[in-house]
Amino acid sequence: MSIEKPWFAIRKPLSPQRQTLLTLCSFLLPIAVWCVVSYVPFIWHPDMVVTISADRSDVTTVYSVGDRLPRDKESENDFVFEDFVEAVRVQNESVLEAREANDPLVTTSRTNKKVLRHLAPVGIAEGWLTRDQATDDAAIYQLWGDIATGERVPTSVPLSEENKEIVAENWAILSGISETYESKKIPKEALRTLVPQGKPSNPVFVPPPHEVVATGWYDWTHQRDPSKPSMPERYVHSLKIVFGGFLLSCLIGIPLGILGGTYDFFAKLIEPFTDFFRYMPAPAFSTVLVAILSVYDAPKIGLVFLGTFFQMVLVLSNTTKMLDRSLLEAAQTLGAKSRHLMFRVIVPGILPKLYNDLRILLGWSWTWLVIAELIGTKSGLTEFIETQGRFRNFDSVYPSIIVIGLTGYITDQILASLRPVFFSWDPEHSGKKPLWIFRGFFWLVDQDCYDRTTPERKPLISQ
Amino acid sequence: MTEEFHLPSYREQSPKVSARFKKLYERRIKMEIKGLSKTFQTSKGTTTALNKIDFSIHHREFVSVLGPSGCGKSTLIRILAGLDFPTGGEVLLEGKPVTGPGSDRGMVFQGYTLFPWLTVKKNVMFGLELSGRSGSAVESEARSWINIVGLSGFEDSYPSQLSGGMKQRVAIARSLANNPSILFMDEPFGALDAQTRAQMQSYLLQIWKNVDVTIMFVTHDLDEAIYLSDRILVLKANPGEVNEVIEVPVPRPRSPEQFITPEFLATRQRLEELIHPKGAIEEKELPVVRMVSAEDEVE
Ligand SMILES: Nc1ncnc2c1ncn2[C@@H]1O[C@H](COP(=O)(O)OP(=O)(O)OP(=O)(O)O)[C@@H](O)[C@H]1O
Ligand SMILES: [Mg+2]
Hints:
The complex is a heterodimer. Helices cover about 60% and strands about 5% of the residues of chain A. By secondary structure, chain A is mainly α. The longest helix of chain A has about 35 residues, at about 340-375. In chain B, β9 (about 230-235) and β10 (about 240-245) form a beta hairpin. Chain B is globular. At the A-B interface, α12 and α13 of A face β6, α3, α4, α5 and α6 of B.
């Protein structure tokens, strides 16, 4: 019989099942919060997104379908959705009044065509019209007829009672002249415009998950603009910058760090300046980098390098200094000279810590990516994020940000799970097994890695 | 303990033992320590760790260094191994002054200091490979050393997979494989449990018997010192000076049964006197008293 262990125990590890469960939860909880905020209508939703719009004759501000207006007035000067609706109603009122006074307002047929076009988004939302048909007057004319006669009933954007009345009334006027669309036969008498309709929504910077997934999928599988690089191309470009800068930094930083940790000479020569330089923010050098390295990728890689290199030298020098001195002494009593100490004791001795340091430093490199891609000619994922962000297409922005995050996270997880493969001797790993995908590889490298022979004392065999 | 009064003097040697010592002193001097001093400069001033130590170790001798904590045993042995430098005096190894560490002087540390990234076999081969040798000859030599310390079957284990006693045996094998003319051991069995320790002591005696090596062994365990050594160098603290050099009157070959022989007990008593002089450990009344009921009284 197993004892039910508590979920909350101070500094006691949970069972693997519980650990896995909680790991899942740590990702699922934020997603759940996002879903709740997005899909439960009475939570938050401070805006109204326009589903049916209207033109106003008195002002030039135009709200088109998909635009957001605040729902509640917070101050006198706020223009909220209800104000928009009210303004259009007043405008319609004057049309009716004039008509009742037998002196109908006269306008142009062009204006009336515009009035008719405001029904197009309903047809598009229902799938009766394609996106291209938003200005197809003939199809829209047909749609007015279909909705007025009840042949078609919109469900995605159900019409309000007053709009149903307006559709019927306008169709009566239109059909009195022609049942089908003819450009010349649009009346000049002012028609009542549809009253704006909307639905509660969150601000544009919190798009719901399904939109983000759908837009992300579309962006990453289709090429919107053939003259610009596709998303996978941008991604590869971004990877090149991060890993380019990081590897360059490794190439110089690892030897310098190890030298600094080994010889006091190098430590005193290198570390003070490095320590000073790392406080100067790397992005501050962006214009200098562009001036020196010109445009394209060189200054970008240079920036990632600047941001990573100085930290790397200091961290690795410190790691090297942490190596147990008595190992060096032991090697010396075994006849090791300086060059032996470096390559047979120091380097292999610090490798597992160095590996971990490099993992952390690689994470650091990723943080410089966005700034690096903004300097000189904008490029890679950042350029896409920037452009889409300016157009407030946040459903395009988030997938790219998430891809950057996932790449960093997954790289690190893979490197972490490969560590026991490389450093099976490290006591830190005793009992820990690498991810199943790497076990095959592990077995190739070291076939005895799993049988932990129980230490037992053997009798002394004398020569 | 009335018997204690009839203990012979620790200086009394059976003819066999004194003949052995005579033969030992005829052997050549392996290491000579002449007026060795060491002071440390610290922020709180200077500490004299060692003060004018004179001592000679003969070929194939087993010498133990004994003394209270902080008397400079580790400092002495580190200087002899060349890992530290004296501030006065000199050390001669077979007539030549010691200037730094070298493969002719092996060292076994209390903290094992195995290379954790190398297997047992590779650890043992470390010194051999440094001397420029490689190939199957080195490997078979390493195997035989592993065999000697009783670890065959663990050649490909990593140090983290071994127990403390096994690690120390690997460390011994690693030092011996290098064929040092003298082996220094700084409390090598200090971290082991009593049982493993006893076992390691008899391993060490057997190894010493079979391998051409001179051993200098630091310990603070009196029994260990008597059981293993020919002579015991007793140091005193503040400053570290030679207190007495004791010729152990217990005949060889040694066995654990000798722990209760009169010679052994006499030597032990003398060491007790030297290390813990009378009055050094006074029975102090504890300041804490908690009422104990009469039937729970323990003494
Ligand atoms: N690197 C050092 N710097 C300053 N003082 C030191 C240093 N190493 C040792 N000492 C001092 O020298 C003295 C002897 O130290 P040592 O380590 O040799 O003692 P020990 O006999 O080995 O003690 P133990 O039995 O506890 O191991 C101590 O007083 C110690 O404080
Ligand atoms: Mg010591």
